[in-house]
Amino acid sequence: MTPHRLCERAEALGALHPNLHGKDFLLSYELPDDAIGFVHRAAAWLHDAARAGLSLRVFDGGVGVSIFRDKSTRTRYAYRAACSLLGLQTEEIDESTSQIAHGETVRETAAMLGFCTEVVGIRDDMFLGEGHKYMKEVAASLEESSHKGALLGRPAVLNLQCDVDHPTQALADLCHLEQVFGGLEALRGKKLVMSWASSPSYGKPLSVPQGVVALMTRFGMDVVLAHPPGYELLDEPLAAARRFAKASGGSFARTSSMEEAFAGADIVYPKSWAPASVMRERTRLLRARETGRLADLEKQALAENARHRGWECTDEMMALTKDKKALYMHCLPADVSGVSCEAGEVSAKVFERARLDTYRQASHKPFVVAAMILATRFADPAAELHRIASRAKPRRGA
Amino acid sequence: MTPHRLCERAEALGALHPNLHGKDFLLSYELPDDAIGFVHRAAAWLHDAARAGLSLRVFDGGVGVSIFRDKSTRTRYAYRAACSLLGLQTEEIDESTSQIAHGETVRETAAMLGFCTEVVGIRDDMFLGEGHKYMKEVAASLEESSHKGALLGRPAVLNLQCDVDHPTQALADLCHLEQVFGGLEALRGKKLVMSWASSPSYGKPLSVPQGVVALMTRFGMDVVLAHPPGYELLDEPLAAARRFAKASGGSFARTSSMEEAFAGADIVYPKSWAPASVMRERTRLLRARETGRLADLEKQALAENARHRGWECTDEMMALTKDKKALYMHCLPADVSGVSCEAGEVSAKVFERARLDTYRQASHKPFVVAAMILATRFADPAAELHRIASRAKPRRGA
Amino acid sequence: MTPHRLCERAEALGALHPNLHGKDFLLSYELPDDAIGFVHRAAAWLHDAARAGLSLRVFDGGVGVSIFRDKSTRTRYAYRAACSLLGLQTEEIDESTSQIAHGETVRETAAMLGFCTEVVGIRDDMFLGEGHKYMKEVAASLEESSHKGALLGRPAVLNLQCDVDHPTQALADLCHLEQVFGGLEALRGKKLVMSWASSPSYGKPLSVPQGVVALMTRFGMDVVLAHPPGYELLDEPLAAARRFAKASGGSFARTSSMEEAFAGADIVYPKSWAPASVMRERTRLLRARETGRLADLEKQALAENARHRGWECTDEMMALTKDKKALYMHCLPADVSGVSCEAGEVSAKVFERARLDTYRQASHKPFVVAAMILATRFADPAAELHRIASRAKPRRGA
Predict the structure, then answer these.
(1) Is the Cβ pair B149, C360 closer than 8 Å?
(2) How far apart (Å, rounded) are the C-alpha atoms in residues A275 and B342?
(3) Do A121 and A48 lie in a common domain?
(4) With an 8 Å Cβ cutoff, are B105 and C56 in contact?
(5) Over the range A164-186, which residues count as b (16 or more CB within 10 Å of their CB) and which as e?
(6) B363 to chain A: nearest residue by CA?
(7) How far apart are CA C350 and CA C380, in angstroms?
(8) Domain limits at A350?
(9) Is-contact A35 A60, C-beta < 8 A?
(10) Is C397 a domain residue?
(11) Are the CB atoms for C21 and C360 separated by under 8 Å?
(12) Dihedral of CA B84/C118/C160/A362: which sign?
């Protein structure tokens, strides 16, 4: 892609009004279409500009703080890569949950870390009712300290996965779909299946399926959510999905049959999650330190999972899909039967065929993060993209 | 603040002769007035330049090493933020105390880490008689290796808190006082109380109170050190405080009554610390690995602390101060009664009123570190500031 | 050194055809002379350019990933310093051996980490038959993902020490020898002794002696490998050493007498290592989780080491060398008798005399890494060096 073409596309992006400047990016379904549209298109723009070899630097010094309250290799890398490409150094805050969970400490830590910081990326997806709440607490503390003049600016809080939504994942998924199908318009009327799948582990977060259905319904797709009875998700993102489907001319349906869901599907996204009720009980037991009951809960949940071993994405399942070749998606790592576990979400054959596609799917994430940073940190982010393209500075070379 | 005004202020700073180039910043009370004055004024300058949106970059690559031999979130962040703003990447050396404590290892590690390094920031505040000694050992090793041509340059060692002094804290405190009172001259004759305060923990370092009294006495303030009998500090920084008070036209007094200290005070700094004698015994027992006696010492020290529960900064105490509204200072985190502990240094009401002030107090630290780096790494640091202002490059924007 | 002279030297380097662009740097003895020659001379060039105060930045954003599967302070620092000088941020992947060892996971992790990455530096020297294999797996995964368009480019894999070779160490050693003896030509006919030495620990990797003999034999030196019977190295690097010695007009001999080896030596490199057979058995037992037998193996190996306490580099040994003053080399940290252990590789007196020399020896490592990055990431790396010199941008100063 030429710098000239990138300039034109940056100008076109100027027509959108993301209205994210000075704000946070927490739950995508609470944000208006222009905000989502801008981040998605800016991410694709940045990816293309990077492929064209352009320097994406927009900061000459400054810090991107990250707080990972759950293990992460992929999202951590995506966050750091994005910061590096934009010119920020990353600083990871490694406080244990207990240290940072305390109300007073959140306010204080947020203030301390905000002095020279542009953005605070947080992953906190372990406990229902906690992750999003924590991000809002950090944001409120930054807001207060900034308002009272204790900070140089008001850093943006980015949701790198909470208990409710995983916007960097879902937006990367959207970028992938756009590339595979040749544009957003081509997604209209496509059947996307977000399906529960079998797993030998329990307690997987709900944020990916919730984020995916609440995003893809905005683009006129026929989104189907499939899971065995009991594997409920939270109400709020599903209500958003219904609302978006109606507004976009798509649809949002639910089923408790994987076969029914897969029938004629253009895209399948088979992934395990824990029932919301189990996750709620788990949080309650952890708070009450009832260790014995936690073990019981895990045992019951695994037994329940085992009753649904048939929910595996096999060649037989794939044969039900549109032309027998639906696009397989996964946020990785997948539980691949016979490879990373005995019996899991997907057969080795299906996964191996789709493996490089899942890498391509993931490859958008650093650029989604970078687009979120641009959108939240600059009053006119499209103008920044335009300057990146018009200066056309190579990223490599003395 | 306009770049033009920043240029003028940088020129004025050129009149000072900090004489820190190629040296370390270890104990502030051993440094002449021009060194202290330059770092303090350069820190304020950099803070203003950052607020004005200027890029502070003075390095195009290079490393700032940090060695934290005690936990740290705030100072670590301040160090990294400072390095990032100046254009250095940070590299933290995570050697356990035992590995790095060995004489040979110190020399070797210092040499290894000095090859492409501009600055080595060290926190080592756990053991009386050890922290400052260790920093001098690292500095001597760098000096030797540099002198013999094994290093590209002679990195500066910065004291990020030792057993004797905490210069980045005390200088940030000074920047805060200057802002609150409207200039250094306005500090003359102000009564500042550095007071011991009650805590449910023992073994807190002595470096903050020592650093504060040995710095503030240089500016004509009436500094009062208050603590219960037995909670002695080290002699050397107190002797320096007496000397500075005499030279600056201020005063340095001691009392064993918190009420007497607070009476008519303009500024109060209530903070717990361990008696020097307890810290000495603790170091001795740790060296001798007398674990049983360590537990006894802790029990005795906590019992002694408990006898002084009245040393808490409450509304009643604050009512004794000048116009009942002395400035409350703390290096954070504070032991807030009913919030972070049952009964501690300060009541929740007093702390909540002062909370944002303590954030503002802390906000100066990254710029103090940056000023120390400039002063130790450049022959004419004021000229660097002038160039930063005259090039007026924005830190943000493509 | 003037920028003009650096330009001339960069032009001269253009005559070499390293042919490393888009490739990895894994085993130096598998690479042709021009590749080795370019990296060695570019490292010396970069060291001189850094001493001349030039900015070495060739990247405006981007990531250097590191994976350390064994503890490292020195090499980690060298890698980070090199990345920092060239303009890359470093991101360390901290996966436990078990997590990353799995075939599927290697492919996936490599792809995830390669999106915006220029270089992946790996240390994996713990198990014979594993380290080099792992690096090739990572490289193959990057190759595949890049070929299929999932990555922005194909990151280079750099060997920061494997079970077979330690090229950054051996090339830094070569840079040191060149400086001490005044040029590569001066090394012809010099006797270099790579000798086993006594150690109170067991299980030290074989990669340093293997890398040193397989590199130095390329430069016409008379290389002698000395060790007690049984302390065998791997066949392949020794075969390469024999081949290189023949081609370069040097020689490669072996002896089981330290005294015989030291006689008339110009350079001595006394360092402990474990017998290849012990390392093989150790890997086998670890895989089989035979913990009891592992303890037995350690006991036997240490008893065997103890039988060779005479293999210590003492004043008496040094007296046998050329003019009694051979150059002492070590990759550090050394087992210094009476200092870091009771009885080890070298006497305190010999080591203290050579200490600063060993620091100088190590000082080349960041520049060797930087040269490897340049050679693997740019089609015409000599042209990059030329641009660095001709733009002559200072690394320090606003």
Answers:
(1) yes
(2) 39
(3) yes
(4) no
(5) bbbbbbbbbbbbbbbebbeebee
(6) A115
(7) 44
(8) 169-362
(9) no
(10) no
(11) no
(12) positive
In-domain check, residue B398? no
Q: CA-to-CA distance for C328 and C348, rounded, in angstroms? A: 13
Number of domains within chain C: 2
Interface residue of B89, B337, B396 to substitute, partner A, most A CBs within 10 Å: B396
Question: Is residue C356 in a domain?
Answer: yes
Domain CATH number, residue C172:
3.40.50.1370
Residues C153 and C221 in one domain: no
User: Are residues C137 and C241 both part of a single domain?
Assistant: no
Q: Which two tokens stand for residue C310?
A: 């005479």
Check if the beta carbon of residue C276 is closer than 8 Å to that of residue C234. Answer: yes
- In this structure, the answer to whether residues C346 and C376 fall within a common structural domain is no
Residue C181, in any domain of the structure: yes
The pTM of the full predicted model, rounded to 2 decimals, is 0.96
Gap between the Cα atoms of B166 and B382, Å rounded: 24
Interface check for B105 against chain C (CB to CB < 8 A): the answer is: yes
ipTM: 0.94
Helix (H, G, I), strand (E, B) or coil at A306: helix
Phi-psi region for residue A392, left (φ > 0), alpha (ψ -120 to 50) or beta?
left
Q: Is A283 exposed, middle or buried (0-12, 13-18, 19+ CB in 10 A)?
A: middle
Say if C91 is an interface residue toward chain A (CB within 8 Å): yes
The chain A residue lying nearest C65, using CA atoms, is A77
Residue of C nearest to B58 (CA): C398
B23 touches chain A (CB under 8 A): no
Helix (H) or strand (E) holding B161: strand B156-162
Q: What is the SS3 assignment for B251?
A: strand
Co-location of B232 and B113 in the same domain: no
A98 and A186 within one domain: no
* CA-based nearest residue to B228, from B301, B141, B119, B295: B301
Q: What gap in Å lies between CA A381 and CA A390, rounded to an integer?
A: 14
Nearest CB among C59, C93, C387 relative to A73 is that of C93
Q: What is the pLDDT along chain B (398 residues), one digit of tens a residue?
A: 899 999 999 999 999 999 999 999 999 999 999 999 999 999 999 999 999 999 999 999 999 999 988 778 888 999 999 999 999 999 988 754 333 444 557 888 888 888 899 999 999 988 888 899 999 999 999 999 999 888 989 999 999 999 999 999 999 999 999 999 999 999 999 999 999 999 998 889 999 999 999 999 999 999 999 999 999 999 999 999 999 999 999 999 999 999 999 999 999 999 999 999 999 998 888 888 888 898 999 999 999 999 999 999 999 999 999 999 999 999 999 999 999 899 999 999 999 999 999 999 999 999 999 999 999 999 999 999 999 999 999 999 99
**Encoding tokens for residue A182?**
């040749």
A59/B336 touch (CB, cutoff 8 Å), yes or no:
no
Burial annotation B323-332 (CB, 10 A radius, 16+ → b, else e): eeebbbbbbb
CA triple B77-B79-B83, angle to 5 deg: 115
Helix spans in A164-275 (H):
167-181, 207-216, 235-248, 258-262
Residue A1, class by beta-carbon neighbours within 10 Å (0-12 exposed, 13-18 middle, 19+ buried)? middle
**Shared-domain flag, residues B125 and B202:** no
Q: Which residues of C touch A362 (CB under 8 A)?
A: 111-112, 115
Distances, alpha carbon C244 to alpha carbons A307, C219, C248, C262, in Å: 64, 8, 6, 22
Placement of tokens 């705030």 in the chain: B74
The amino acid at residue B59 is: F
Cα separation, C281 vs B238, whole angstroms: 63
Q: In what order do the strands lie in the sheet with B117-124?
A: B89-93, B63-68, B117-124, B156-162
Residue C51 and residue C40 share a domain? yes
Instruction: Kindly list the residues from chain C whose CB atom is less than 8 angstroms away from the CB atom of residue B88.
Output: 84
The answer to whether C187 touches C181, Cβ cutoff 8 Å, is: yes
